[in-house]
Structure formats: C-alpha cells, structure tokens
Amino acid sequence: MQVASASRAAEPPLEGLTVIDAGTTIAGPMAASFLSDFGAEVIKIELPEQGDPTRQWAPKKDGVSLWWKVSGRNKKLITLNLSKPKGQELLKKLVLDADIIIENFRPGTMERWNVGYQDLAGVNPGIVMVRISGFGQDGPYSHRPGYGTIAEAMSGIPSFTGFPDKPPALSAFPLADAVAGLFGAMGAMFAIYHRDVKGTGEGQYVDVSLYEPLFRLVESFVIAFDQLGFVKQRRGNRMEESSPRNAYETSDEAWVAVSASSQRTFERLAHAIGRPELANDPRFANNPSRVDNAAELDAIIARWFRQFCLGDCMEILKQHDVVAGPIYDIQRIFQDPHYEARDDIIEVEDAELGTVRMQNVIPKMSKTPGEVKFAGLALGEHNHEIYVERLGLSREEIERLEAEGII
Amino acid sequence: MQVASASRAAEPPLEGLTVIDAGTTIAGPMAASFLSDFGAEVIKIELPEQGDPTRQWAPKKDGVSLWWKVSGRNKKLITLNLSKPKGQELLKKLVLDADIIIENFRPGTMERWNVGYQDLAGVNPGIVMVRISGFGQDGPYSHRPGYGTIAEAMSGIPSFTGFPDKPPALSAFPLADAVAGLFGAMGAMFAIYHRDVKGTGEGQYVDVSLYEPLFRLVESFVIAFDQLGFVKQRRGNRMEESSPRNAYETSDEAWVAVSASSQRTFERLAHAIGRPELANDPRFANNPSRVDNAAELDAIIARWFRQFCLGDCMEILKQHDVVAGPIYDIQRIFQDPHYEARDDIIEVEDAELGTVRMQNVIPKMSKTPGEVKFAGLALGEHNHEIYVERLGLSREEIERLEAEGII
Fold this sequence. Notes:
The structure is a homodimer. Chain A is of the alpha/beta class. Chain A folds into two domains: 2-217 and 342-403, 3-Layer(aba) Sandwich (Rossmann fold); 245-249 and 255-326, 2-Layer Sandwich (formyl-coa transferase, domain 3), CATH 3.30.1540. The first copy, chain A, is built from 18 helices and 14 strands. A six-stranded parallel β-sheet of chain A has the order 5-2-1-6-7-8. A three-stranded antiparallel β-sheet of chain A has the order 9-10-11, with helices on one face. In chain A, helix 2 (27-36) crosses helix 8 (175-197) and helix 7 packs parallel to helix 9 (211-217). The longest helix of chain A has 23 residues, at 175-197.
C-alpha cells in the first residue's frame, strides 16, 4: 500500500507545535491526545506524587491502570503543582515557548492560581488556551461541578436514546468528554490558523463546555421544536424519520443493525429476506408509510433474522448489497479482517506491561500520518528533559522544588 | 460580557479559507459546516434539480426540510453534476483556487469520475481532500455501502449501551456521521498546518471512515480486552468502574443523572439524601465496594428521588454540591437559563420560514468567534456568483450547461 510506505518517511503534520496539557482525567487530556497523535509535542502536567486520576482508574493489570496507558500515550510527563506560586512561575516559563495550553479545571481555578488567560497572555500573547469545563466559562451554572454524565444528560441526547419503557440511556463511556475534546482540538487549530496562517500572531482562548458539543451534533433537534413543537422521544432503535431502521436478533443471539429506509435499499432488503412483494404493499410502499407501520414491518424482518445464524444472515444480506452490519463487541472486533487490514489496533511496547494493544490514530493522513510512539509513562518521566535541559534549572533547584512539593 | 462585544468587530478565524463541500447528506456536509461556522468560504455542490437528499428529509414545515436549514447554513450553493465530463472540468476549475475539498461518496466513485485525489492534486498540488466513507478508502469492506447506523454497530459502542434485558441501543441521530465530520474537519486543519504553517505547500488526502472515529473514543475498550480479556457489557446506566452512576426518576416522572463515585462526591450525595451513614457502611465505603453492591445502593438512592419532584430534588442536591443534572428534553432546554445566557440557541432570518431557531456555533472563541450568517438557501443560489463572477463563464455557457443538466 502506497500510503503506508509513504508514511514511514514523512514526519507527522503537527511536529513543531508545542502543547501543554494541564488537564486532568478525560476531556482536556483527550483534546491533547488528538494533537499528540499527530506529532505535536505535548507536555503533560501532573500533580506531584498523585499524578493524573486516571492512573488510579479501573481496569488495572498488576496494579497498573490500562486507561492511563492510552490517555497518556505520546505525552512528555512532568510533575508540577499549580496551586503554589513557584509552580505558577514554572508554568509561565513553559508557556513562553508553547503554542497551546489545555486545561479543564472549574472556571476561576486557573485565575485563582494567577495563571488565567490574562496572566498567560501577558507572558506570551500568542498562546492559545483551550478551556474545557462542564458548563463553560460563563453563565449561571459555570461554577457547578460538571462531569460528562451530567453534561450528557443536559445536552438532550439521553432523553431520546433507548427504549420508551426503560430509563433514558446514558452512554457507558465518557462521550461528552470525548466530543468536547474533539471540539477543543479543532478549536485550537482554528486559533492557530488565525495566528499563524493569517499571520496575526494573536492568541486567544477557546471556551469549550461539555454539554454544548453534544447539543450541537443533533442538527434537527432545535429547529424541529422551534418550528413544529416536535419533542424527540425514545423509540428504541427505530427512528421517527426512517424505516426500517433497527437491530434484529439472529438465531445465535447476535444482533444485526439494518438501515434501509430509502426506496432502493428497502427493495434490496425485501428481496434478501425473500419477500420482494413487501415493496408493493401499501403499508410499506414508501418511507413515510413504513414509518407509520414500523412495528408490523419490524415483526416481519425480525422473524426472518431469527431463522439464521449471524454468519448466514450477513452472507445473504451481502449478496443483496443490503445496508446492514453486526453489532460488534470487542471480541468480534479483534476477529474482524477489515479492522485488521486497516491497522485499527496497534501493538505498543510498554516497560510495565510488555506489549499492549490499543487503538491506532484517527484519521489516516496520506502524506503525514500520525503515530503512537509509546504508551503512558511513569510520573515525572520527563522532569529532567523539561526542567533541566529546556528551562535550565540546576540540580539544586530541582531538589529544592521536589522537597517543597512543587514538582 | 467582553467576549461578545469583542466578537462583533473581529472576523471569524477561517476567513480566507476556501472549502468545496462535495459531500451529501450528513458526514461530509457536517465536516464542512464545522469549517463554515468559523468563516471558511464553503461552496457546496448539489446535483442539478435533485439537490442534497437532506432537502427531502423529515421533519418538514410547509414542505421545507428543517434539517437542511441547519446543515446548509452558511454555505454558498451551486449545482454541478460530477458524473459528466463537463462537470468534472468545472470542479477542477474550482479546485484550482480551493484549499480543501470534502466528499463522502463510496470509495472509487470520484476516481471513476476522473476527480480522484490524483486528478485533483494534478490541478492543485496543495489541495487537501477529506474523504469520508463507511469503511475507509481501503480494506476488504471499503466498497460496501456504509451508513452511520452500520458504522456505529461495528464500532462496538452499541454492544455496551443500554440495558442487558433489551437490544443494544443505537443512537437516534447520526452520531457516527457527526463524529466522523469532526475528525474530518480536524484532520483537514492538521493538513493545512502542514501545508501552510510549516510551509511545505504540500496537500494530501485525509481518509476518514465512519466506524473508526467512534471506536477511537472509547479509550479503555481495546486494551482492557487485550490485557484482561474484558468484554464490556450492557449495564443500563451503571458503569463497571464507578458507583453510584445512574439516572433516577423523580415523583413527577423526570429523570436525574448522578455521577458520584469519588469518595468526596459520594459523601456529599449521602448527606443530601439524608443518609450520611452510608459513607461508613462497608458495602459502600469505597468505590470498588459500591460497584460490587451497586444494585443495593441504587435502590436506596432511587427511593429518595421518588419522594420529590424534579425542582425539589435539584434544589437539595445543589445545596450539597452534588454532581447531578436533569435529563433534558428539548422543551426543558428552551426553558433553561444557562442555555439562554450562553446564547446556545440563536435566531436566524430565513426567506422561506421567517425566523428559525437553531444551535449556535461551537466552541466559543474569545477573539475570533464563529457566526451563523444565514440558514440553508435555495438550490443553485450562488451559481451566478461562482460560475459567472468567479470562473468567468458567459451567459450562453451557463444556459448550455443548464440545458445539458451539468449545472
């Protein structure tokens, strides 16, 4: 493959960009990860002794957090206590030569520590500060504790996710944090474009909440209520705009997702399940009729799926070019030839755990691909490189800072 | 507010960047929207007569698609049939002065039309091409039809979303497309950084599938299986790593999401529900014990919530600084003072529907904020501006192209 061979020689696209990851747990560190996946130098700040909370998170192997191995990957690690004046001074020294700083403390915290946006811009007017928080930097809730779960709840999405006879379904992973991290990384690049490509030299801050990114993604959500009074409801795996769209169980207790609401895709599905006449049945003749009669249609389709095992179902559906796919768990993902061909799972050497496997970088860039160089390292691993080699601190200063709990 | 007043004067960050949106429906157009929200000039290509499929999507008002009003916002609209040689010629003329082109056809389609990456790079070596598809540009499934629902199913996420006694829960909006759109816009900015800030002048293509972006977001998913054989399961609104974390129903049938697994947050919750002794109960004394006894703990908490209406619950929880939030539907979002203070919902004038309300741009940039200038316009609205004023076509050429179904 041309792409892969070209990739070896080229450097990642963001090489030369320096990012300070002053975030903790998920959202801020994930924004930083999207940049470090593509070659930005990310210097991650952790509290002395404690380190990032994800270092303590389950799941663990031999006492080592697996989450940390991924969220800390590709990052240079220094310890630094920002609540102490000497720690604040050191941060400002780092900011002098940095392009981006990412943080996700409660609004006001960085200001209390004398390292708010104004303080840092005073040191380096070109600095781009990505500030992630539950509710954003202003507004009446801005000082409330905001975790991803709460932000997701208030984004509106869980109210229409899941089944009507069950509670609203929350994500079982930090979706709000992850999407906020994406908006944070993207917003940082917009600010860098303004600063460097347009040549203004001007930095700024980027205010990312956890609830607004998810709210933004559901494009028809606001306007449908505004114009029609439409309140989106939980409908299980059906959709109010299209049918059939559902997950169906096979004879071997696997599930297959099907999306076949356009006329052509529905006709292909009808053929695949041996019921071509359904496309002419007035109840199912077009998408609006199918939506009105979704329960009947789903019963017919579900009956077909229950006759066959997953492999047979997929074989028949593929022959008819039906838009369908199995609901994978991680076990099936490890067995899937397409995941394998795309190198979606990579092996990374790790001093603590040996070889670990994790997700590759996303997306795939043809000339300057990103790469994973190493998994999450030990607390303070790069203290010497950053404090001594880069900032020029002496051995005595380092020892004093360590003794005082600054680094 | 300083931010808002500064925002009026400054131009959006991406002004000067030209993007061709050759995508259809969701993923490609959404990537383009994230850029046009921040001032990039986005020229959207639609099939003559038919237009983008979202123009026909529900929900509609007076026959006008509401979805289109959002997904088409801020975009200059031209008609162009890429399957015809003259259409391909016109695209190449547009590419000559463009920075980015975004497409989401099945892999191979653009090549068949002589406008694949090699063809376009031949015209403009600096062009950045964002290619979004169900399964990516290579690998055994690359030519399969890939809709967001299928990609989501194969990303692994639905397998652990929802309740164990119900089918896996798929999203009720195009989540995979939206997240792919984010990775596409972010990847485009990485490529622009490589081209313009590092000054290589070199374009490239960015290969974004619909399944990999979601797969990437669940950081512990791969490594937990690799190292521990752990297969993430559906647990309703509980999490395997933390407790309590759930949604609880109030006396007035509202739902509240609670995340209180750290010791301090749990103690605050225990106080709020009048059961401070729970923090010393060996079953609930620390997070691992709480995870083991999650059903018992949830029963105690759920009993408390059922005694009060939503307003009373939230008032008590707020007094104790508990990390909790109501599960909002769109009606509650419209009434929320924080959404209002943050200008999350804006009014946009529209020739067809009068004033329409939709989501504001995300994130908030302090010096160069994005903005929504107009909602989705009519098919071919900018044909004159682009074809006549920019490309210099004559009135006769335009008429001939129209007659031939090229534009």
